Each structure stands twice: as structure tokens, then as C-alpha cells.
Amino acid sequence: MADRVTTQFGFESTAADVIAGVDLTGKTAIVTGASSGIGVETARALAAAGASVTLAVRNTTYGDRVAAAIRDSTGNGRVDVGVIDLSDLSSVAAFVRAWTGPLDILVNNAGVMATPELTISSSGHELQFASNHLGHFALALGLHDALAAAESARIVSVSSAGHLRSPVVFDDIDYGFRDYDPFSAYGQSKTANVLFAVEATRRWADDGITSNALMPGAIFDTRLGRHVGAGQAVSAMKQLKVKTVEQGAATSVLLATSPTLDGVGGRYFEDCNEAPVVERRGAPGSGGVAAYAVDPANAERLWEVSLRMAG
Q: Residue 292 catalytic?
């Protein structure tokens, strides 16, 4: 087993901290879900370092507003907006068709959490799995040649400690037989994000593409938690150490840009450092990555299943 990656950064580090001294002039980046929350701060940090950044968002009204604010605050005019609905594979395909040129950084940041009722996407799959994993899988697959053309591209997948709630249940991903639970469905989709990073690196490392996943931290000032009741949020805030959005974006930005991560892939990070593998879920906030989420056999199986689901 390779040594765990550690850095000088930690829980309190911000996106600006980890990207200090990094020059992304001439680099291109896509950040999904960059119209709110940590996606905005991720995009802002990349733009501040000189990258050309595309905000891939569902709502272009919000996206245009954020893009204008980032251009103004960074002085970087190369911040654009593209429309994508990750729950709709035809929308993902349209975004891919519109993309031209190499792609250095793909940040799979968008997500939905704890949808109260079982909801099936237009592609016929449980909404959280469809949005959080399958849409991003199809996006990365469609952009593979653009990533390969960059020669040392990175894919960053925003997972969550919520992955500790559930492995990918291959026999019933879409809750056709088991009772739907909002948080186990979320957990399954976040496990899929980690498994994608493992298998994408295995398959694409020879193309110069590496992929890692991360837990951004507990951040309550975002739209992700809109389905979480006020009582649940208060309870969670009492148990967890909360981050600002600037701190929440730090690990994403680290994985996207740090020289320490050159050639490193298939890992899961939290608080800007690689997380230990755990065999059992600990107390809330104790962290770690589940063994099933970094298991190569699970990763390969999910890739094959995802190819069928996205086909």
C-alpha cells in the first residue's frame, strides 16, 4: 500500500491558502455546480490563479451572476458559463458536444443530498445516484479526449463522509425493492464518487489523467442541505465542527492544483490530507474512508454498471 499523502494544510485552511503560489495561466477548468456554495469558491480560486474557468450549472441566471462576480473580484475575464443538468444524460451529452480544446481540471462538485421522496431521473435512475455519480461519470467519459489532450489532467470528485452510510448496493441501486432512505441513497452516491476516482485513475493514468475524491467538511451555508430539516441541521451542527465555504473548498482546490498531487490518483482526502481507511463507521465527524469505497473490485464493477446505465 502506497504511503498516505500528507500536506502542510488542514481543517482551517482555505482555498486561497492552498493555491497560493500556484500559476494556472494557460490552464482550463470546469467546475460543476459552481453557482453556489463551495463550487463558487473553487471556481474563484482557480480563476484567481489564472485559469480559464467554465461554470457548469443548471441555472444560468445564477451562473452568469457568479461568473460576473468572479471576473470582477479576480480580474480574470476568462470565466464562462455552460448549462448542464447532471440528472439528464442528454444535457450532459450536449455540454460535452459544445466543449472544444484540452481540459486540465474537471471538478465534479455539483450534488443533491437527502431528496425526501424516491425520485427517478429522466434517465430512469434514483435521482441522487443519477445526479451525483452517473451524470459526472458520463461527463468525464465524454471529456476523456479533452482531458488526455492536456497531458497531465486532474479530475476531482466531491464526495462526503456520508459515503460511510452505504456502499453501492449493486443489486438494487435504484431502490426497486428496498425501502428508500434519503441518507442511505445519498451515501451510496457518494461512495460511487470515490469508486469512480479509483477506477478512472487505473484506466486513464497512462493518458496522464488522475482522479481523486474528497470530503469537503461540514458546511451548512450552502444549497446542498436544502432538503435537510432545521432540526436535523441544528443537531448536526452540535455534533460536527463546521467549516466556512472558503474552508470547504480548500481540499477540492488542493487536489486540483497542488504539485504534491502530481501523478497521485485513486485516493480520498479530508481536511487537505489523505484519509485513513476504516472498517467501521465511527462517531459523526471522526472521518476516514470506508474500505468498500476504495476497493478496486467494487470500482471496476461500478464502472461497468455505469457504462450500461449511461448507455
A: no
Place of cell 443533491: 112
Rounded to the nearest angstrom, the gap between the alpha carbon of residue 116 and the centroid of all alpha carbons in its chain is: 22
Collect all residues with Cβ–Cβ distance below 8 Å to 132 and sequence separation of at least 6. 86, 110, 111, 112, 186, 189, 190, 192, 193
* 98-126 confidence digits (pLDDT tens): 999 999 999 999 999 989 999 999 989 99
CA distance 135 to 19: 28
Question: Is a pLDDT exceeding 70 seen at residue 180?
Answer: yes
Q: How confident is the model at residue 231 (pLDDT cuts 50, 70, 90)?
A: very low
pLDDT of residue 233: 45
Find out whether 187 and 164 touch, Cβ atoms under 8 Å.
yes
What does the pLDDT look like over 41-53, one tens digit per residue?
999 999 999 999 9
> Mean of the per-residue pLDDT values for the chain?
94
Query: CA-to-CA distance for 97 and 267, rounded, in angstroms?
Result: 30
Residue 225 has pLDDT above 90, yes or no: no
CA distance 193 to 184: 14
Given a contact cutoff of 8 angstroms between Cβ atoms, the answer to whether 140 and 193 are in contact is: no
Which residue among 62, 175, 180, 186 is the active-site one? 186
The Cα angle at residue 214 between residues 126 and 171, in degrees rounded to 5: 30
